[in-house]
Amino acid sequence: MNISAVIITDNWDEKMKRCVKSVEWCGELIIIEDKHVESRIKNYELSLPAQAGIKNNNVGIYQRDLNNDFGKQRNYGLEKAKGDWVLFVDSDEEVSRELRKEITTKPQISECVGFYFKRQDCFMGRWLKHGEVGEMKLLRLAKKNAGRWRGCVHETWDIKGPTAVLENPLHHYPHPTITEFLEKINCYTDIVAQSWKEEGRKIHGWEIILYPLGKFLQNYLWKLGFLDSFPGLVMAVMMSFHSFLARSKYWIINSTVGRSLHSPD
Question: Considering the entire predicted model, what is its pTM?
Answer without folding.
Answer: 0.86
